[in-house]
């Protein structure tokens, strides 16, 4: 870097500067990353508690950067949201995930469903419904095999326009899941407004089930509330058998976590699916 530039930045904390530079360089490469196929999707199995079967997966974005190695989504999703690149990125991830699901169906697992994370910003985007429906049509996947995850904070803050978008998605058969449930300090009235099929209890509560009585109460009452509203429940971040068993006693419908399956490449997921079938 030129010396004059160095002086200009001198008052900044070097670590902060490095961080800012890193983010800038990541952002600059993000558009090309999609074109160059550096963005790929990891699939984390979602297990049905009653049967132990893999009934679906969550699509999690990954960036295989040629110089930096694997960049986690926490380092590029927020930047993509701020810079207007999230629509493009999500279109790409959705396309990969829906294509993968269609191929899983052709391999004989016709009830497999896929969950894709949706940024708050996209719910404002006029092109969202079309993008979702075109992607499903392109791969001939029925809408009810797609679950869109929106965070509780998004669901809570949703104004009329967004509720309309969610209603249109739901009316077309796409399912909706409220992600990171419990982190929003919310009143519960939004649950009535949002046509959610599923409530996904945040990892921060699930991981504390063993040790914390208050988290146990929180999780148990969430499951009961969801069931009384006719919604399914998913627990995320299940890391061991003790927690899994607690959730079973609480009649949680689905689980996800390192204990039942880490995020993995599509080929590994397909292997697991056919292994489970022959067991
Ligand atoms: P999330 O949607 O809450 O996803 C769950 C995160 O928890 C994932 O991290 C997953 O790898 C991790 N995880 C799963 N099971 C366990 C467990 O047992 N223990 C622990 N400690 N962690 C577990 P990941 O893949 O790094 O994703 C982080 C966040 O990035 C996601 O949180 C989501 O908010 C966002 N994200 C990922 N992919 C996308 C995407 O395609 N679009 C959007 N908008 N956001 C995405
Ligand atoms: Ca999620
Ligand atoms: Ca989550
Ligand atoms: Ca989260």
TrEMBL record:
The organism's place on the tree of life at top rank: Bacteria
Domain EAL: 23-277
UniProt-recorded name of the protein: EAL domain-containing protein
Record organism: Sphingomonas chungangi
Shown residues in whole-protein numbering: 490 to 768 of 771
